[in-house]
UniProtKB/TrEMBL annotation:
This is Rieske domain-containing protein. The lineage of its organism: Eukaryota, Metazoa, Chordata, Craniata, Vertebrata. Keywords: 2Fe-2S, Iron, Iron-sulfur, Metal-binding. PROSITE patterns: RIESKE. GO terms for molecular function: 2 iron, 2 sulfur cluster binding; metal ion binding. The keyword Aminoacyl-tRNA synthetase does not apply. Coiled coil: none annotated. It comes from the Eukaryota. Residues 18-115 form the Rieske domain.
Length: 132
């Protein structure tokens, strides 16, 4: 039986296939679109050979975390929101401000990257009609 991005149970956190490691490892950060709409989009990071995923919209006021600066300070990986410069730990989603960014589990199997999420995910935006 097929698994991965085949999910007909709405809002269940399932493993969603994103794409091949060979492609997704070419960029340090990219936006992954959610079928639930932009508030559920994901920011996929590839840093030092590891993938991480956070919610793409900042927990503070919805800024585009996928456009933030990434810093590695002695192994502490952080992304800084471009709107108000709040820091978020890329592994834990925690900010020194006390905010918590949603973290999504990521796994690699057979050269494919999967992210656990409540909706289908895609590298391309979903047409508006599929967001319901
Ligand atoms: S919206 Fe991200 S720090 Fe304010």
């Amino acid at each position: 039986m097929a698994t991965g991005d085949v999910g007909n149970t709405p809002n269940a956190n399932l493993w969603r296939s994103i794409g091949p490691v060979t492609e997704l490892s070419k960029r340090q950060c990219r936006l992954i679109h959610s079928a639930l709409g932009c508030n559920s989009d994901v920011c996929l990071f590839f840093i030092k050979g590891e993938f991480f995923a956070l919610a793409a919209r900042c927990a503070h006021a919805g800024g585009p975390l996928y456009e933030g600066d990434i810093e590695d300070t002695d192994g502490l990986l952080q992304v800084f929101c471009p709107w108000h410069d709040y820091d978020f730990n890329i592994r834990t989603g925690k900010s020194q401000t006390g905010l918590q960014q949603e973290v999504h589990e990521v796994k690699v199997e057979d050269g494919i990257v999967y992210v656990k999420h409540a909706s289908l995910l895609s590298l391309q935006p979903f047409p508006p009609s599929s967001k319901s």
